[in-house]
């Protein structure tokens, strides 16, 4: 090879590398680099199954197969720190939710029970053994007087916190995979094994109001958007569907997953949705254009649950990992969100002319009674 040929080859290699680097930089501009790992939470002694942020975003919790619930806050550098651990469940913790006032943390478990943890007064923690099979959802009603639970035994129970004998039972057909309460508290959205979601009255004789059909396999998680206008569902059919709650029609179908979608969370402004997949990847979608704007990879065998904080800056991934390597993972997102007003908040002047938020397609207009 002559010197001229050698130099020519070197120039070609350099031009190729230049082109590759430029393409990569363009990709980075258009795709948020969410491989900004922040920290790993290692306090559980078995796989982490569920995670949840408090409403104010100042704390979060994780639940594991070890039956424990860990509560975290943040230090002055915004790094998570363990505040306390709640023990008592005899099976895996399947779901977590905070009360809106931040005083209570509710957990559901495969041990057929639900528990209400009093964060400031642990002596007042309560246990509810109400179901005949694993509990799949548990949360407090808006008054914080009742715990609402759903189970694979096909029942929904509304139980007085101070008297477990005062329990209203709603018997449905088939195992309940997940449960959500509408923003006006008048309806349940119930995900059944097999891929069906039903809108059901919380009271009254005409219980079933609407069926949302579109998934072809089991639904693992459902979430209501912050404005109360949309319902999202994650399914084993490798997709997320965002439904228009009133019409029951598909608003968006989000795809691109290689395996079962196990979990979803809306951002607090309703513009984004985070979905976790059983192949160990979580994807962040911008709902308005159905595009994936970020991916979280290399997290273990699969993703069991996801959570995104109030300002959108952090996500937590509950994932099943190898022995001696358990933990939930915390990432920076590269986005920011402005939470929508809570239902019942004071009306904003000229709200009827507000610009629709991306991902909702509709302005949030408050009626005088606080409903939407």
Q: What is the gist of this entry?
A:
With 372 residues, the protein is mainly β.
Q: Can you describe what's shown?
A:
The protein is mainly beta and 372 residues long. The chain has a single domain, classed as Methylamine Dehydrogenase, Chain H (7 Propeller). It is built from one helix and 28 strands. The strands form seven sheets. A four-stranded antiparallel beta sheet has the order 1-28-27-26, with no helix packed on it. Strands 2-3-4-5 form a four-stranded antiparallel beta sheet, with no helix packed on it. Strand 11 and strand 12 form a beta hairpin. The longest helix has 28 residues. It is globular and about 90 Å long. It starts with a helix and ends in a 40-residue tail after the last strand. The C terminus is likely disordered.
What descriptive keywords fit this protein?
globular; mainly beta; 372 residues; 4-stranded antiparallel beta sheet
Q: What is the CATH-assigned architecture?
A: 7 Propeller
Number of DSSP strand runs: 28
Low-pLDDT residue spans: 20-34, 344-372
Instruction: Tell me the structural class.
Output: mainly beta
Mean pLDDT, all residues: 85
Assigned CATH superfamily: YVTN repeat-like/Quinoprotein amine dehydrogenase
- Helical amount: under 10%
């Amino acid at each position: 090879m002559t010197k001229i040929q050698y130099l020519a080859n070197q120039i070609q290699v350099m031009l190729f590398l230049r082109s590759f680097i430029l393409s990569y930089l363009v990709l980075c501009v258009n795709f948020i680099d969410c491989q900004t790992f922040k920290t790993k939470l290692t306090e559980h002694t078995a796989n982490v199954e569920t995670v949840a942020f408090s409403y104010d975003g100042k704390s979060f919790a994780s639940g594991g197969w070890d039956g424990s619930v860990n509560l975290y806050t943040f230090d002055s550098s915004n790094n998570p720190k363990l505040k306390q651990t709640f023990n008592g469940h005899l099976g895996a913790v399947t779901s977590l939710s905070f009360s809106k006032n931040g005083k209570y943390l509710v957990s559901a478990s495969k041990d057929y029970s639900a528990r209400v943890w009093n964060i400031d007064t642990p002596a007042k923690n309560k246990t509810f053994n109400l179901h005949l099979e694993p509990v799949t959802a548990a949360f407090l009603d808006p008054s914080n007087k009742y715990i609402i639970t759903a189970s694979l035994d096909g029942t929904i129970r509304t139980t007085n916190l101070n008297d477990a004998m005062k329990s209203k039972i709603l018997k449905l057909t088939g195992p309940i995979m997940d449960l959500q309460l509408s923003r006006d508290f008048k309806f349940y959205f119930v995900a059944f094994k097999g891929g069906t979601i039903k809108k059901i009255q919380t009271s009254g004789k005409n219980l079933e109001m609407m069926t949302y059909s579109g998934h072809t396999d089991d639904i693992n998680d459902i979430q209501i958007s912050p404005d109360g206008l949309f319902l999202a569902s994650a399914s084993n059919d490798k997709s997320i569907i965002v439904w228009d709650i009133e019409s029951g029609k598909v608003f968006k179908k989000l795809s691109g997953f290689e395996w079962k979608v196990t979990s979803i969370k809306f951002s607090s402004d309703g513009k984004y949705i985070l979905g976790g997949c059983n192949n160990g990847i979580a994807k962040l979608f911008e709902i308005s254009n159905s595009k994936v704007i970020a991916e979280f990879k290399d997290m273990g065998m699969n993703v069991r649950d996801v959570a995104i904080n109030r300002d959108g800056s952090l996500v937590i991934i509950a994932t099943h990992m190898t022995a001696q390597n358990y933990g939930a993972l915390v990432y920076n997102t590269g986005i920011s969100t402005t939470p929508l007003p809570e239902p019942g908040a004071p009306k904003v002047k000229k709200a009827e002319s507000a610009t629709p938020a991306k991902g909702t397609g509709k302005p949030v207009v408050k009626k005088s009674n606080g409903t939407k």
